[in-house]
Amino acid sequence: xxxxxxxxxxxxxxxxxxxxxxxxxxxxxxxxxxxxxxxxxxxxxxxxxxxxxxxxxxxxxxxxxxxxxxxxxxxxxxxxxxxxxxxxxxxxxxxxxxxxxxxxxxxxxxxxxxxxxxxxxxxxxxxxxxxxxxxxxxxxxxxxxxxxxxxxxxxxxxxxxxxxxxxxxxxxxxxxxxxxxxxxxxxxxxxxxxxxxxxxxxxxxxxxxxxxx
Length: 213
Description:
Elements: E1 2-11, E2 14-24, E3 29-33, H1 40-47, E4 55-60, H2 69-73, E5 76-79, H3 90-100, H4 105-114, H5 119-122, H6 132-145, E6 150-154, H7 162-172, E7 181-185, E8 198-203, E9 206-212
Parallel strand pairs: 3-7, 3-8, 5-6, 6-7
Antiparallel strand pairs: 1-2, 1-4, 8-9
């Protein structure tokens, strides 16, 4: 489903990723671990087509994300660690996602309800003015509302309260997610220990450990 073959990425004079190779199969659940600066975010940006590899290649369902970004990203729902400063209102964001992806507005709302986010109270507010926790709940709700076979989460619980964290973990084991491929980027494996079956650890841009859990 996702293949990285001898992937390297240099930014300026710094080698961020060096000869990274591994394959993620359909339905696999894995976590990518590593300290700050290990290369986790750069790796995900290569998978999402934000960065062009300096050498090697990335394939998402056969597509090179940097060259065929639309085709690759139609299969991926991504929740970033830092929500973007979108000036859309919450309603406009829901409408945009419904128009350009395969998610339904009411389904997004149902997931927001699940996370105890009162959509009606914030529907006309600009997204960037929401609290960090609210932004995260909205983005997670949109990700789950899509029918994308691949979910990528970058520190997804960082801004969530205790109740929302528990609900997020419960949702990962829901039947609706049974066949989805999930990739987590985190410092803490305990956050998603109930679902991940594989751990890949990066250090200084290289894979130093790849184990089944």
